[in-house]
Amino acid sequence: QVQLVESGGGLVQPGGSLRLSCAASVPIFSLYVTGWYRQAPGNQRELLATTSTGGSTNYADSVKGRFTISRDNAKKTVYLQMNNLKPEDTAVYYCNIRLSTYDYWGQGTQVTVSS
User: Taking the alpha carbons of 71, 107, 9, 85 in that order, is the dihedral positive or negative?
Assistant: First the structure.
């Protein structure tokens, strides 16, 4: 069974930083498009950032300039560097990888931004 294990969430003050990691147990990680999503209570799941197999990235306006998605294919890991965090960033964050008909999700990690 494919597993995506997330880590790096926690409590941080406004203006602080966190880095989320997501390690995937798939044979060839480099074939997958990867992304990060978040969902706050009462809200829909929001797509934050994606990175293609060719290395191009896309960001939601809400995080552009503050968050950076990256991947290490040798480590089969996708990262989300989050800087200048705001209270409205508080949510459960999920990683996702996708290849053709295969679509896998991490377990979610809580990020809380509060003073």
Answer: positive
- pLDDT (tens digit per residue) in 20-68: 999 999 999 999 999 999 999 999 999 999 999 988 999 999 999 999 9
Give the pLDDT of residue 55: 87
Tokens of 19: 């880095």
Residue type, 42: G
Q: Are 85 and 17 in contact (CB under 8 A)?
A: yes
| Backbone φ and ψ of 84, nearest 5° | 50, 50
Q: In angstroms, rounded to a whole number, what is the distance separating the alpha carbons of residues 109 and 19? A: 11
Backbone φ and ψ for 89, nearest 5 degrees, come out as -80, -10
Q: Name the one residue in this structure whose structure tokens are 């509060």.
A: 114
Amino acid at 114: S
Structure tokens at 4: 């995506």
Strand positions, DSSP E, 1-115: 4-7, 10-12, 18-24, 33-39, 46-51, 57-59, 67-72, 77-82, 91-99, 102-105, 109-113
